[in-house]
Design brief:
By secondary structure, this protein is α+β, with helices and mostly antiparallel strands. It is built from ten helices and ten strands.
Length: 312
Amino acid sequence: MNRDITSYSIVGRIGEGAHGLVFKANHLPTGREVALKKILIKNIDEGIPVNVMREIKALQLLRCKYIIKLYDMFPRGMSLVLVLEYMSSGLWDMLHHRQQELTLPRVKAYAQMLLKGTRYMHAHYVMHRDLKPANLLINHEGVLKIADLGLARLFWPDGGRPYSHQVATRWYRAPELLYGARYYTENVDVWAVGCIIAEMITKKPLFAGESDIEQLAIVVQHLGTPTEESWPDHSNLPDYHKITFPESPPMSWTQILPGVEPDAVNFIKSFLLYDEKKRISAKEALKHSWLRTKPSPANLEDMPRPNLNMRR
């Protein structure tokens, strides 16, 4: 692609993020629809913000059908413009405005695409750290793709490196992060995936706290007070002794997910374990029987196409 704004025709503004505006545009030489993410560089001496650099590096590394594409980037005055794949809508839009389209076959399709994108990231030693419906975009063909990798980080399989615990949007934040863990793994993404799949099925967030403490209280209320058996060494987490809750037994999963079929419940709870080492991996989750039952989520051609005309 040409590295110049004159090669693009702006169609309209479609969003606003933490670092700048997002526009829909047409690439004039090819006619391709793209999204232009214009990021203001507030202090030229400090260079490009670290989150933006992480997103660029992650998107350059990750080339997968289920992860949004970065086509190009170029400077524009005091801004940096990222040329991204245009996506007509997203999972957040479907959950909040088009709930009738989230049929069970479509939920399974999106779950499989999310897991394939997550499996690819983790196979390339990248953890997203902010998976949520708003960061899962959907194109005209109904393909779901992971986007917004500003919090993504490389990880090492043997661990040993501290990270910030101030990551992930609250409703999808793993309990180890809520307790201030600095050493954690890609399984923080796995927890988020479980929350997202449950939300797609029930059409409401699974754990919806209005503060970090309330978020943790809701998780403990549902999963029960952690023990050394359910979560070894949890009492050594940095913030564990700062927060205390009344002792409570775990709720039954039929209470947590009322009316949800047993195979789906079995699938969801395999993501949502206190002990991150016991959480199912994205690779293993793709083999689960719930995804293999008819109608197959892989056969997208047999599914009605979504009518996604909402702009993001």
